[in-house]
Amino acid sequence: MMIKKYLLIVILIGSGFELIAQTIVTDRPDQTESSSTIPHKSFQIEAGVLFGDLNNEAQRVYLLPTTLFRYGLTRGIELRLAQNLINYVSEYSSEARFGFSDLELGAKFQILKREDINTEIAFLSHVVLPTGAEGLSFDKYGTINKLSLSHELNSFVGLGYNVGYNYFGYDKGMFTYSMALGAAFNEKLGAYLEFYGESSGPTGFLINFDSGLTYLIQDNLQLDFSFAFGLNHRMNYFAFGCSWNIGGKKGEI
User: Fold this and answer.
1) Which of 8, 176, 182, 216 could join 164 via S-S bond, C-beta 3.0 to 4.6 A?
2) CATH, residue 41
3) Mean pLDDT over residues 91-102, rounded?
């Protein structure tokens, strides 16, 4: 169970924050889910690779790749599917595990989005199916839930934050939180700073910091780089990714 708990810290990397001056809205590379849904009838692929140390430097995890698929069902609802291919290595015990994580099926709902105010709100919920490989699955059904809010501070800077509750069939579940400050340097390059973590049982609050860059190649194609480390526990990772929107109308993406 300890392995699964620390794997969860990075398995949930499929999240994001919308930079003001950029056109494609992605849910990577940070942990704060965007408060926007993707355009109606468009399909978006967000994939990347992640290399991390969990709990201590002798427990290493590689996500090759981490993948999120999104489809714009309506103008305010998107469907989502996420799964990761994981390679876990423990240098202490020579234990190695390789396979797919549990499958996540869900949706994001736009609750508030108006041009006359600078606040957006969305709600996201996933069902986690115990389909993963042995030792990489929670072996029970679970849920991931987040309320996402964002504020446009000016034309180049925005603030996004999430509060959530996840349950994976054991203990009392966990409360999650994140807050990201994003800035757009120009029409192509953006960056963010973020604090995130969770509260789970006797371990109390886990606090992490991450940061990263996004680069817009085209209106519908974005590259990203990010890194993270634990502030009150041992954890770190760095990741690279790419997001591609297909079918979104020009001006909507």
Assistant:
1) 176
2) 2.40.160.40
3) 82
